[in-house]
Design goal:
The complex is a heterodimer of chains A (270) and B (358). With 270 residues, chain A is α/β, with parallel strands linked by helices. Helix content of chain A is 38%, strand content 24%. The model of chain A has no long low-confidence stretch (mean pLDDT 90). By secondary structure, chain B is mostly helical. Chain B contains 14 helices and four strands. Chain B has helices at residues 13-16, 23-43, 46-72, 80-97, 103-122, 130-150, 182-205, 207-217, 219-224, 229-256, 266-279, 285-307, 314-334, 339-353, and strands at 163-164, 168-170, 173-176, 258-259. The chains are: A alpha/beta (270), B mainly alpha (358). The complex binds adenosine-5'-diphosphate (ADP) and magnesium ion. Residues 58-59, 101 of chain A line the site of magnesium ion.
Amino acid sequence: MKDLKGYVTADGRQIGGVLMEMRNITLKFGGVVAIKDISFDVREGEVRAIIGPNGAGKSSMLNIISGFYTPSEGEVWYKGEKRPPMKPYEVARQGVARTFQNIALFEGMTVLDNIMTGRLTHMNAGLVSQAMWWGKARDEEIANREKVEEVIDFLEIQNIRKTPVGRLPYGLKKRVELARALAAEPSILLLDEPMAGMNVEEKEDMSRFILDVNDEFGTTIALIEHDMGVVMDISDRVVVMDYGKKIGDGTPDEVRNNQDVIDAYLGVQH
Amino acid sequence: MLYRTAGQFKTSYTADQALFPIRQDAYLLGIILIFAWVVFPLTASEFTFQTLLIPILIYSLAAMGLNILTGYAGQLSLGTAAFMGVGAYACYKMVTIMPWMNPVVAILLSGVFSAGVGVAFGIPSLRIKGFYLAIATLAAQFFLVWLFEKWAWLYNYNASGAIQVPNLKMFGVYIAGPQADSMIQYFVVLGIVTLLTLLCINLTRGNLGRTWKATRDMDIAAELIGINLMKSKLTAFMVSSYVVGVAGALFVFMWRGAAEPNLFDIPLSFRILFIAIIGGLGSIMGNYLGAILIVGLPVMLNTLPQTLGIPISSAMVEHLNIMIIGSLIIFFLIIEPHGLARLWALIREKLIIWPFPY
Ligand SMILES: Nc1ncnc2c1ncn2[C@@H]1O[C@H](COP(=O)(O)OP(=O)(O)O)[C@@H](O)[C@H]1O
Ligand SMILES: [Mg+2]
């Protein structure tokens, strides 16, 4: 079913070549081994899930991809090249955007401004131009505002544009955070438990948005999720982690029937 | 009804991004500008220029500079006065070394020196935050004032150790020094303060402003969405110190007329910090409100009881002033950290929906 060139999903979408590859990643915090020799890849256009019990090392894995943690061993390959050590902001500028397990919005700013910050990797007018609100700065401000409005329409948050994010309920905050990441027009979107703490209805909305993002913009998505039902529904391939080790990798069906996974995760948790 | 927004629809993002999306705000600003540029100059006495108008403008500017750093970028500084000093001494050196230089150009250029010094002292902010950064800026404060005292070249080896503003002309008119007229000085200050306010408004509402606010609100998330924290913090130090430095040059050249090193000591730093806090951190307009209050209060305490025939000693005025300012600081820090500007925003919000609250 899968080959070097990609594969076709059950619902008929063409998945491309490898976009990001983690090779033999090990991560230690002092004596604690959070991730032990894990390899997996994420392909162009795919919805890739990482699942596993609490403390399995999933968030740490995303933090490595973001450049926030440096792996003790192993390599990150991105767009066919081995990635040198770089700062998180440089990683972001290469087209990696993300959301956080604990919402990390800028509380003192409006929804609109928060989402506009997602565009700042696309803006580079100089200080003088910005101070005068003239020329390049003004053009950029308008062009990027248009992009942001597209995202706002897409995620159906028009009516809270000017609201300070501090005043929003939890579910909407999660959506605004997704909007900020989407506004960056990333090559790969990392979502850390986008549905945690949501009710069923909110989860359905969020699942739909994630699928729509993947469908309409062709954005590659790597997501961490706890809710097995959701994961099985929306992802193309799943990595299963437990105690920092990879214990399963494959389509939702393959993973569901993997005995290690059943023992370690499904059996224990459900 | 005063703040009616009905019928004001935005048809483009450009319109929505205009400085005043609500028309009444533009009217209000228009009225303020007319007062500042026409009514006050025509009616103000020498006393009003010297005790209210000129200092309010200069203090507003200094607080605006601090606000960029502390209110917008979230980097607390206790060294504002020292950076004002850098601006003042730079201006003094320029006009004494190059007497032919246009004084307004010299004032605007003096900010470049304070900006450079500000960036140098901002480097610790890359490693330390909050309380520890505040202490580091305090070190800058002590060091710079010490330098103003010990480096005799700065004050041209005057026996007094102070700098004396010479008579300076622009277009044949004295604008600084003992010969200068208060009204002219007021216009120079007003022009520079208006210009820098406009630039600061633009910077804070655009990409750089969002970068600063993101750094302030959550630096880790800011970095993960692509913000170079070093650049963000150092530009904040640069812009802030520039504005503060120009305010310092105005402070000495357009108002005090002379300065000793200890003028730029901690009390002045705190005074400006109080203006920013009472006015509202993260607001441009708040700096004006804060400065009006801090500069105006003692003047009012002095004159009001007199006009009402209540006998009050000047020591009493001093004590009252300190008590009121102190309680205001506590009030704003605890109850309304966004200061007078936030109170105004609330009133404005109420006016927009008044008289139908739903
Ligand atoms: N910054 C850190 N310092 C020390 N230990 C950490 C750090 N981040 C994560 N860990 C540890 O790594 C392990 C994996 O954590 P995490 O990646 O958050 O798991 P998950 O997201 O799968 O729940 C946990 O044991 C956690 O305590
Ligand atoms: Mg996690």
